Amino acid sequence: DPMGNISIRDMRRSEISQAAYDVLVEFGTRSATLERVAARAGVSKGVVLHHFKDKDALFEGVMRRANTLLRDSVIELLRHAETPHERLAAIVVGNFADPVFKPQVCHAWICLCADVPYNAQLQRIQTVIHRRMKSNLLVALRELRPADATDIADQIRVSIDGIWLQASTRVAPMSSREGTDLAVQAINLAFSSSGEDRRALRRAITKMEGIASIIMTSKAYAEKIGRARLHSSS
Known about the structure:
The protein is mostly helical. It has helices spanning about 1-25, 35-40, 45-50, 55-80, 85-95, 105-115, 120-145, 150-170, 175-190, 195-215, 220-230.
């Protein structure tokens, strides 16, 4: 059954990508060897190389996995957003949530970013990430700042990218709290926010952080992410 073979192949790639993600988070980019990934996945190094031709290809799979986790974090939080400020907060908290915003993932991301101009596949991943973030931001901003929503969305997206960049080049890890606070500052500057805007956004951030701490540590969410791994395009 060709479809069955494709499904098994994709499932194995997904499992290896997840193993690589786990090894990267535990050991960092320099020590995330193919041998460690194979051991974590319970397969031989040859099987890893069958699905990913080299370490760079494997890290590309890791970034797809991180992208999937980030997307799912934001989607999950947006379900609980009831106001435009809460939708902005969901995007910010989702982008800096513990499941994704880890020093090792930041370091891997910056390594891959250096190859984006020369790698069409990485270009596609970056394009998808940026397009999705801008689309999510515009939903909130068109209610809050309809006249210049597109320009503000671009400013916020670039700021969030910049925070990830700063986190990736620091020796001392940047916490989720610090990343979130920097993003809030960027939003307030982009808005030229009024006092009420600032208070509304801070209340929304507090709400979303509370929801994230409950949802993203729950068994149900872990199981949902596990199911998503088997269907993601690793």
